[in-house]
Amino acid sequence: MPDIASAALRYQGASYVFGGIPSHGIGQWDCSSFVNWVVGHDLKMAIPGYSPGTYNGQTHGPVVLDWATWSGASTHKGPPARGDLCVWPGAGAGGHVGIAVSGTQMISALNHSEGTKTTGITGFGPRGVAVVFRSLSGNSSGGVSVPSLGIPGCLIGLVLMPYEIVKVSGGHKVKNMMTGRFYSRKPQSEERAKAQLRALEAAEHNPGWRGRRARRAAR
């Protein structure tokens, strides 16, 4: 079995790009495309939707939800072994994935400000989402194919948790099309609604981004 943790630790200190395409350069990845690059490209193992040795990093590849449900890995309660995946199943900010380097630490691509780094496992996933540990067998086929939407893989969250600006009496509001929730009590200008939409998407798709960071990123 390849040493997944050692392969990942070579990238300690690399940057982060939301929806990043790894072949564009070191650090051009988010949490899931970082795992895709290490496991699929560097170690030439199977990853969701790709047979061994076929992932070249020229697309984002599978996202967190794909890693959470892939038949090529087995779930256990933990603690994780070195090289296991630490997965918080969910879309956008509701999901995250890292590679365990010990029973208590992992390396993952966190966000734009912190980049790719080693942290604890506890406290570094999305709030309110339980972590699951997944062991890779190293000899699986690619399993179920990941659907191609013509957009970077982690942006699938935009389809699962879609926001839209709707016109209401007196102005505009941002609405979550899945839940029907509106994100402002009063109507606002279209320009302000667009800024709020960008902030919501920044918070949704970047683990650890909240409040001022998300608003700043949306400007």
Brief digest:
This protein has 219 residues and is of the alpha+beta class. The chain has 6 helices and 8 strands, in the order H-H-H-E-E-E-E-E-E-H-E-E-H-H.
Features:
6-stranded antiparallel β-sheet, single chain, 219 residues, two-stranded antiparallel ribbon, disordered C terminus, endopeptidase fold (from Nostoc punctiforme)
Please give a structural write-up.
The protein has 219 residues and is α+β, with helices and mostly antiparallel strands. The protein has 2 domains: 4-138, endopeptidase fold (from Nostoc punctiforme), CATH 3.90.1720.10; 161-218, no CATH class. The chain has 6 helices and 8 strands; from the N terminus they run αααββββββαββαα. Strand 3 (96-100) and strand 4 (105-109) form a beta hairpin. The longest helix has 15 residues, at 190-204.
Provide mean pLDDT, rounded.
Answer: 81
Major sheet strand order: 1-6-2-3-4-5
Q: If helices are DSSP runs of H or I spanning 4 or more residues, what is the number of helices?
A: 6
The assigned structural class equals alpha+beta
What percentage of amino acids are in beta strands?
15-25%
Q: What spatial form do the alpha-carbon principal axes imply? A: elongated
Point out poorly predicted stretches: 144-161, 205-219
Level-1 CATH class name of the largest domain: Alpha Beta
What pattern of helices and strands is seen along the backbone?
A: HHHEEEEEEHEEHH
CATH fold label of the largest domain? endopeptidase fold (from Nostoc punctiforme)
Tell me what the CATH architecture of the largest domain is: Alpha-Beta Complex
The CATH superfamily name of the largest domain is endopeptidase domain like (from Nostoc punctiforme)
N→C terminal distance: 45 Å
Radius of gyration: 18 Å
Q: In total, how many domains does the architecture comprise?
A: 2
For the largest beta-sheet, the strand count, sense and barrel status come to: 6 strands, antiparallel
Count of DSSP strands: 8
Helix content: 10-25%
